[in-house]
Amino acid sequence: MRYTPDRGWHDAKIGPRTGLDMHPATKTLHYAIEIFEGLKAYRLPDGGATLFRPDANARRFQSSAERLAMAPLPEQLFVESVRALVRADRDWIPSAEGASLYIRPFMFGVDADLVPDPASEYLYCVLANPVASYFKSGDKAVTLWVSDTYTRAAPGGTGAVKCGGNYAAALVAQAEGKRQGCDQVVFLDAVERRWVEELGGMNVFFVFEDGSLQTPPLTGTILPGITRDSLITLARGMGLTVREERYGIDEWQADARSGRLVEAFACGTAAVVTSIGEVKGREQAFTIGDGGPGPVAARLKSALTDIQFGRAPDPHGWLDRLF
Ligand code: PMP
Predict the structure, then answer these.
(1) 316 FRET partner, CA 20 to 30 A, in 50, 146, 198, 286?
(2) Could you tell me what this protein does (predicted)?
(3) Is ipTM beyond 0.90?
(4) Ligand 1: which of 227, 234, 300, 304 to mutate, most ligand atoms within 8 Å of CB?
């Protein structure tokens, strides 16, 4: 679908993937005027299919567009475009355990000039791909690398929205983590280099021995994850206390050593809920619990995926059934 100031959004079409013909001066290639979303369609036990909270993705897409001075895409149009593609691709929604159809809506400025001002014309596309589990390690706990050299988002920056530039800037840290034998990077805040913010593509939760949970607050430098929000609701529904409060990397290390912290896990649309077993990159690596997957993460993951795959009731009205 295209946007021009005179016609608004127009020319919506669904078809096989084709190449895009772009002028070398296309603004986005130079100034990263690009935003995206990630969500999934799930196969239901009766053969139907559902989306999970696409309205939340539509709202986040809208706030990403605002932050990058891009044209707004009405939330209803976003949701309708995703529904239409999934219906067209219905045979591609996997039914294997844990598998789903990953959906990637994205939008970028297409004006062909080298002036670094907001774009006026846009292309909005949606891709869909069947996916299995995110981590090759399956349900094993992952190892994190604490990036001391790089930060992901500074106050006033774009950390709270989903734009391609955030990910480009994080790649070097991911590569550093991989070289150190870690699965993912955990980023600290850019000001004090102390507060745990999030992973490259996931929010993070901590579980304490008193059974309470904590997750970093949405201070403007982390992405407001839809999985994060859903898990807070589910955990509170189980009677667990959830604090949205800052947590320092040194406290994390000390609490893991003393046993006050019993579990930590990461969450996101792609990875769902994944336990964190070990953290490296400080002077000394530290292990969380016994280094394996934790019971609270497992319980929350089941609660979430049971709703997503239609195995449990949907008391919060999160499912958007397509057929
Ligand atoms: N943080 C970052 C940086 C991400 O890219 C993602 C994935 N969208 C998340 C957190 C988790 O967000 P969600 O639960 O909406 O997938």
Answers:
(1) 198
(2) Acts on leucine, isoleucine and valine.
(3) yes
(4) 227
